[in-house]
């Protein structure tokens, strides 16, 4: 009896926008590179109105500007949280099990000042 699970078929991964209770799914196989993924994530969240856009829609999107104010990370098979783009595309597709979109918290430069 053959197993119905084909190891060459990569399942869709869950996309979690921090603060939202409903997740989306995306098939990484349908994208050939990070730029295509960035464009798809932008369409999924900005064009749907989940995230407000401050940028022109004519920009050439990549992972750094696809979702302004958010960082795109992923969980691998060991549940480690890593930055999307750290691996080459083919390795990323193999190990990513969840994409997490996290708000970037502004850093505060307030604090102690040095006396010279």
Automatic annotation (TrEMBL):
Q: Which PANTHER family match?
A: AUXIN-RESPONSIVE PROTEIN IAA17 (PTHR31734), AUXIN-RESPONSIVE PROTEIN IAA33 (PTHR31734:SF7)
This protein's species is: Nicotiana tabacum (Common tobacco)
**Ranges of residues in domain PB1:** 10-106
- What coarse category fits the chief subcellular location reported for this protein? nucleus
How is the subunit organization of this protein annotated in UniProt? Homodimers and heterodimers.
The UniProt entry's sequence similarity note says: Belongs to the Aux/IAA family.
Q: What domain of life does the native source organism fall in?
A: Eukaryota
- In UniProt terms, what function does this protein have? Aux/IAA proteins are short-lived transcriptional factors that function as repressors of early auxin response genes at low auxin concentrations.
Q: Which protein is depicted?
A: Auxin-responsive protein
- Pfam families per record: AUX_IAA (PF02309)
Q: Where does the UniProt annotation locate this protein?
A: Nucleus
Query: Cellular component terms, GO, for this chain's entry?
Result: nucleus
Give the UniProt keywords, A-Z.
Answer: Auxin signaling pathway, Nucleus, Repressor, Transcription, Transcription regulation
> Which InterPro entries does the UniProt entry name for this protein?
AUX/IAA_dom (IPR033389), AUX_IAA (IPR003311), PB1-like (IPR053793)
Q: In its UniProt record, which GO terms are filed under biological process?
A: auxin-activated signaling pathway; regulation of DNA-templated transcription
Q: Which gene encodes it?
A: LOC107802173
């Amino acid at each position: 009896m053959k197993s119905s699970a084909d190891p060459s078929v990569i399942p869709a991964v869950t996309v979690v926008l921090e603060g939202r209770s409903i997740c989306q799914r995306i098939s990484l196989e349908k994208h050939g590179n990070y730029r295509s993924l960035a464009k798809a994530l932008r369409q999924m969240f900005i064009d749907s109105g989940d995230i407000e856009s401050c940028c022109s829609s004519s920009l050439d999107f990549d992972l750094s500007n696809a979702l302004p104010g958010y960082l795109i990370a992923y969980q691998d098979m060991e549940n480690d949280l890593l930055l999307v783009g750290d691996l080459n595309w083919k390795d990323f597709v193999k190990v990513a099990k969840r994409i997490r979109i996290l708000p970037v918290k502004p850093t505060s430069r307030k604090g102690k000042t040095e006396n010279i």
